[in-house]
Structures are given as structure tokens and as C-alpha cells.
Amino acid sequence: xxxxxxxxxLSFFSMAAAADTLFSCxxxxxxxxxYHPGGLVPDKSVGWTEDGLDVQYTVTDDDANEVDVLxxxxxxxxxxxxxxxxxxxxxxxxxxxxTILTTYSGEVVEVLQYFRERKSLVLSQFKAGGVINKSxxxxxxxx
Length: 143
Prior knowledge:
The protein is mostly beta strands.
């Protein structure tokens, strides 16, 4: 178990090492989500609820100034947003924050905003056209 966890961490950081790391966060995103009717969402679950996600994100910028979001998925595999088919756009970067937009086939839109001084990440997530449709906003402190 420890060996597989170590391999996962090492491979995650080796992927990020090929580019500059803009920020990296691991832990629990907490917030609220509005679950829309339809798909696998039963009528009793439609509406606002406290929600959360366990995440590991690393946002990179390569020599061509191409930004990517590396993440660990539910099966504990490291994924690249771009390799998963997402468009990844750097919306802005200042001394105070970095804002990234990712879109997956129009069904999932995410805005990641990292606040440098507070070392916090805010994720706005919108899912439509899938089995679970929701609009959500989460926040976490990063190491």
C-alpha cells in the first residue's frame, strides 16, 4: 500500500516536473452545490446542499506558455485535463491570483482560482448533459 502510494506521488510530481508548476493543492474542497433535476438525481435531492471533493491539483505552464491541469481522479490515477480532452485557458495571472478555465466537451466547465497570499483555491464547477447535473462552488487551503 505504501509502495503504491509513493509511486503515485512520484509519478504525479514527475509529470509536473516537465513544466513550471504555477500552483499545487491537495486536500478537501468544501462548499455548496445545486443539484439539477434529471439524470441520476432523484427529486428529493434536487436543490442546494453542502458538498465536497477530495482533490489533488497541480497547474503547470510549459515552455510554450501552455497551461495544463494535472489531477488525481477517483480511481487514484493521474490525469491531464488536456489529455482528457479539455480546453485549458489561462484567464489571468497577477501577483495576487491565477485564474484557469477548463471545459470538457461543453458538458463540464470549471474555473479554478488560486489566491497566492492566502494559498487558497476556489473551484467553480458546472456539469450539464451528463448523469449528474450540478452547479457548485468550493474552497480549500493549500499547503
